[in-house]
Specification:
single chain
Length: 104
């Protein structure tokens, strides 16, 4: 394994120790139903999405991502029209600028 996998394994072991100290149980517990486990997983994933949103805002890329989606939709709608060449160029220039910012 690489050091990356080693770091992940170490974190998993530490997390298991914290969980055992806090709850006195391991993941082999049998007092939760499958639905309970799925509900806990869903809650954890929702928390993760909130963390992602916060980090995107911190990095200033949320607005860029939203703008990119808007630009993409505008390009698609212009694709079926015979006009809008200037607008397409402006959108692609905006996309190029965002790509450069993302690569920094």
């Amino acid at each position: 394994m690489s050091r990356i996998e080693d770091n992940v394994c170490e974190k998993i072991h530490k997390r298991a120790e914290v969980g055992f100290k806090k709850y006195g149980e391991t993941m082999e517990r049998d007092d939760f139903s499958t639905l309970d486990w799925l509900s806990y997983l869903q809650e954890e994933l929702m928390d993760a999405v909130v963390y992602i949103e916060r980090l995107m805002e911190d990095l200033g890329i949320k607005k860029m991502a939203d703008d990119l989606m808007d630009s993409s939709e505008r390009v698609q709608s212009l694709g079926t029209q015979h006009t809008g060449t200037k607008e397409k160029k402006n959108i692609f220039e905006q996309l190029r600028e965002y790509r450069e910012k993302m690569n920094k």
